[in-house]
Batch of 2 targets.
Target 1
Amino acid sequence: QQPVQSPQAVILREGEDAVINCSSSKALYSVHWYRQKHGEAPVFLMILLKGGEQKGHEKISASFNEKKQQSSLYLTASQLSYSGTYFCGTEMGDYGGATNKLIFGTGTLLAVQP
Amino acid sequence: DAGVIQSPRHEVTEMGQEVTLRCKPISGHNSLFWYRQTMMRGLELLIYFNNNVPIDDSGMPEDRFSAKMPNASFSTLKIQPSEPRDSAVYFCASSLRLAGGSYEQYFGPGTRLTVT
């Protein structure tokens, strides 16, 4: 039930781009993305809802393929501050809409070097 | 805005002792979540509340774990008796949930629990 993230880790130079993928075996209502720096709490980045609506930061883009139950996070022109572990959180729906229950993926460690 | 407040930030205890973790959600938020994070199991949802009512506790590992939310501004997670395998970082998060939609969660700084 835990979503699978890929890659597990990626190393970039400043200015390079990266894509992080999240895949679920369950039908999803939404996908959430969070970034966690070492020793800190996860911080919200973006929500992608079925139907195409997105909520989140302007400088981060993502996609959600409802048919495949997959989401991708696109990090362009990476900066040193992008370093951290990225988690996707998948949410299923019920008759009332969103369940509000997130199942987090295994995480992708991103290191941006000067 | 003070954000989600958790206490203590660090707790070291001996096996068999009772441990109580505390959380104050962001004022006005109506959903509260307790998570546990370890290297082996990642970030796991233990239990969550909507409007102070426990909705899903399927992630609570054993009867040794219990959580309460007596009012909108306070929640506790208790472990009794504690065991070394309970060592982890415990996060509390809150969100404002409206009419069945999906909303961002705001995490507290976490409590690092070590059981020896």
Target 2
Amino acid sequence: SQQGEEDPQALSIQEGENATMNCSYKTSINNLQWYRQNSGRGLVHLILIRSNEREKHSGRLRVTLDTSKKSSSLLITASRAADTASYFCAIEYSGAGSYQLTFGKGTKLSVIP
Amino acid sequence: DSGVTQTPKHLITATGQRVTLRCSPRSGDLSVYWYQQSLDQGLQFLIHYYNGEERAKGNILERFSAQQFPDLHSELNLSSLELGDSALYFCASSAPRDRTSVQFFGPGTRLTVL
């Protein structure tokens, strides 16, 4: 399967701490995206990193991409209770066509107030 | 609010029945994607339509079909329903003019098959 694999499956931290989640994939990509899903709601796009980029920032989010290791990480700094959600990596593989994304199974983040 | 709407929000039906889920994409978006999310399978891509034409198929069962209409709204038809079809069904839209695969998701339809 070309599905991305997030790690860990679940993460519980205290408010104010940093949260790091990882995504690994198998073949070459055009870009990798991170989405957030609050319980039972639709996914929300957070950030996109292209295959020729190594790091991107958006507010308290920092994403890195290591194409040699076929992995990405999402860092959320100074976490808040409102960050409690599931986080998914979504991969646009090279040659996939039609801008198709392949989603991982997600990391469930709990931020304890 | 993503601008993508889905109806109904909840659907409860019996095995063997047929249901239709509806999706309206963001204004101007030509692409509609359908996904199934169940607890043990994560988010599974079903099918992609672009401006009325089918562009890609994923893990879509033969009992399921979809179409996109001239006004760009899309419908996902699920027939001969089984207990295992109980899941959240999402549609997402995207704007190829942006030359990106970023997708905007609707709030989902929760289907319960009893």
